Amino acid sequence: MKRNKPVFEEPGKAWATLLYLREINISANRFEQLPACVYEMKQLEILMASDNKINSLYVEGLSKLERIAILDLHNNNIDFVPPLLGNMTQLRNLQLNGNPFRVPRRAILDKGTYEILDYLRSRIINE
Predict the structure, then answer these.
(1) Running DSSP on this structure, what letter comes out for residue 94?
(2) Most buried among 2, 23, 51, 85, by the most CB within 10 A?
(3) What does pTM read for this prediction?
(4) DSSP letter string over 56-104?
(5) Strand 46-48 to strand 23-25: parallel, antiparallel, or no bridges (unpaired)?
(6) How far is CA 74 from the centre of its chain?
(7) A GO CC term (predicted)?
(8) Domains along the chain?
């Protein structure tokens, strides 16, 4: 029996029309990573991806989303938050609660988006 592939695995021509989306909600699925086609949605302002199984963040891809203001990744399996995420200063709302990472600590998460981004920027190692 042939199993269907998730719709995001094969974007094809249909996904080309989604490049101008301003908001997408892919919450409550079983994604282990953000679908690659999301990084091509240059007009995206709101990305809701909570309650999945996302285990890592691809900051280089997220950085392509220059208009992103809300990034909701709570209740996933993220075990490391890359410090470079702190350079995404256009974020107004970043939700990371409910993930297994230890850094940044919950006390920093509770202070809000600006504090999280500031903390992450302070952890960037300049070579």
Answers:
(1) E
(2) 85
(3) 0.88
(4) ---HHHHTT-TT--EEE--SS------GGGGG-TT-SEEE-TT-S--SS
(5) parallel
(6) 10
(7) cytoplasm
(8) 18-122 (3.80.10.10)
